[in-house]
Design brief:
Layout: E1 2-6, H1 10-19, E2 24-28, E3 40-44, E4 49-53, H2 65-73, E5 78-81, E6 85-89, E7 94-103, E8 106-111, H3 119-137, H4 143-146, H5 151-157, H6 162-176, H7 181-185, H8 189-197, E9 205-208, H9 212-220, E10 225-227, E11 232-237, E12 242-246, E13 251-254, E14 256-259, H10 263-269, H11 275-281, E15 285-294, E16 310-314, E17 322-326, H12 327-330, E18 341-344, E19 355-365, H13 368-381, E20 388-390, H14 402-418
Parallel strand pairs: 1-2, 1-14, 2-10, 6-16, 14-20
Antiparallel strand pairs: 3-4, 5-9, 6-7, 7-8, 11-12, 12-13, 15-18, 15-19, 16-17, 17-18
The chain binds flavin-adenine dinucleotide.
Flavin-adenine dinucleotide binds at residues 6-12, 28-31, 35, 55, 57-59, 178, 231-232, 260-262, 265, 269, 291, 344, 361, 363, 392-393, 400-402, 405.
């Protein structure tokens, strides 16, 4: 069959790869290069180039089995990194700082620096252990039972302190989910518990060895054609085909179309959206934020001794944390002469001569309503006459990450091929 995939983020790339095994796939992307690698830069540090991406996307096997399997199938190398963290108020010393020590494939986090002996840090650490143990107990309940509880309600119900919630859990997950404190508080508890229960605390976190461009190159190579710089404006159906119209008004016909954009963009594209499609796609809300790769140390903790690979900084005047990743710790080839950071939600402007990448990114927010939307999309995909399909990090259960995007692509590819 002739299939079009719209969007070349990881979801569209994975759908292209899975579907190309049996079909002829054309991959469309509005950006000039493959979407997953749009915001990237090559830094030359005298020891060969280092390919940096914004956002830098890390993964660990416990939570990312499908992504890891895909990376193995396409034979891209990945490697473990030291991904420990620090938490501080902006301009102050860190109050919680841990370092991961590796023993073979297992990692053990220990408080480090001033945190190691500070009663407040010890208390936060003890609460974290209690939180992780309780997360395991949650496995015995069904998702329907646990989705109803928000993480804020969960923390209150089980007597976790305000300090644990506001100084550790909310900042950490507002960072991981790239959203505001308000939105993280209403995240279904089940989603956060499942993430922590998948072994993050004890696992080695990985990054791609060569960089994202190796993944994009191998996945996109499966396509029959790749059409970058093609902004599609409308998807409409006839009895036995689907047509795509680009911004120049050109139209092309396909047997099936996979929309691998964000849900809000998919809704705009579907010229003839049916009521149940509108209802499903409208359930996904988004937050826009900014990710900057730069060399401005003022966006890192003020005390250099507190610098960790991942640093969460909080301020009373901001509704979300700033997260600064110290890239030299992740890519040793960056050396030590210049410090490189990737900062999500910079609290203040970065001097333009210190910016390497400046990206505006959208992230879905998981709510009880969005979980209902996923079930609705699954039902749509079971319709026998279906020709328009949806995938993306929003379209599968879990935190919207690479894993949920690849899972949604894999599931729909199997359904489409059996349709
Ligand atoms: C700050 C930050 C940090 C993150 N860190 C991690 C991490 O460490 N690990 C992890 O697993 N995930 C991480 N993520 C999440 C991860 O980046 C996303 O889950 C993933 O990239 C989403 O992929 P996707 O294919 O669903 O969507 P997208 O990447 O958004 O792809 C959609 C594509 O569709 C294209 N498109 C849209 N409309 C059209 C149109 N009309 N015509 C043609 N093309 C169109 C877009 O240009 C885009 O390329 C992070 C996200 C952020 C914001």
């Amino acid at each position: 069959m002739n299939i079009a995939v719209i969007g070349s983020g990881i979801a569209g790339l994975a759908a292209t790869w899975y579907l190309s095994k049996d079909h002829r796939v054309t991959l469309y992307e509005r950006a000039p290069k493959i979407g997953m690698d749009t915001h990237s830069v090559e830094v030359d540090c005298g020891q060969g180039g280092v390919h940096l991406n914004a956002p830098m996307r890390v993964f660990f096997e416990g939570y990312y089995p499908t992504l890891t399997q895909l990376y193995r199938e396409i034979d891209v190398a990945f490697e473990a990194i030291e991904y420990s963290g620090s938490f501080c108020r902006h301009g102050e010393n860190a109050y919680f700082h841990y370092k991961n020590y590796s023993f073979r494939s297992t990692v053990l986090p220990f408080l480090t620096g001033r945190s190691a002996f500070h009663p407040r840090a010890l208390k936060l650490g003890i609460e974290l252990v209690r939180f992780l143990r309780r997360a395991k107990n949650y496995r015995q309940f069904s998702a329907d039972e646990t989705d109803a509880l928000t993480i804020q309600q969960y923390l209150e119900q089980y007597g976790f302190s305000k300090d644990f919630a506001e100084s550790f859990l909310y900042p950490a997950f507002a960072g991981i989910c790239t959203c505001s404190y308000d939105n993280i508080k209403t995240y279904p508890a089940s989603i956060i518990l499942a993430y922590l229960d998948s072994g993050l605390t004890w696992s080695r976190v990985n990054r791609l060895s060569a960089g994202t461009h190796e993944v994009t190159g191998r996945l996109a190579a499966a396509a029959w054609k790749v059409r970058c710089s093609t902004h599609l404006k409308a998807v409409s159906r006839s009895a036995d085909s689907v047509s795509l119209t680009d911004e120049q008004g050109h139209t092309e016909e396909y047997d099936h179309v996979v929309i691998a954009t964000q849900a809000n963009q998919a809704l705009k594209l579907l010229a003839d959206a049916r009521t149940e499609e509108r209802s499903a796609l409208a359930r996904f809300q988004y937050e826009t934020s900014r990710t900057v790769v730069h060399t401005d140390r003022s966006l890192a903790p003020s005390n250099e001794k507190d610098w960790a690979p991942v640093n969460f900084l909080m301020s009373d005047t901001h509704d979300r944390p700033m997260a600064s990743i110290w890239m030299n710790q992740i890519y040793s080839r960056l050396g030590t002469d210049t410090n490189y950071f990737e900062t999500w939600n910079p609290f203040h402007e970065v001097a333009s001569d210190k910016i390497l990448i400046d990206a505006s990114v959208q992230r879905p927010v998981v709510t009880q309503d969005s979980l209902r939307g996923i079930k609705q999309i699954d039902k749509l995909h079971d319709q026998p006459d279906r020709r328009v399909w949806f995938c993306g990090s929003y379209a599968s259960r879990g935190i919207p990450l690479l894993e949920s995007a690849v899972v949604s692509a894999k599931v729909l590819s199997e359904k489409l091929s059996n349709n």
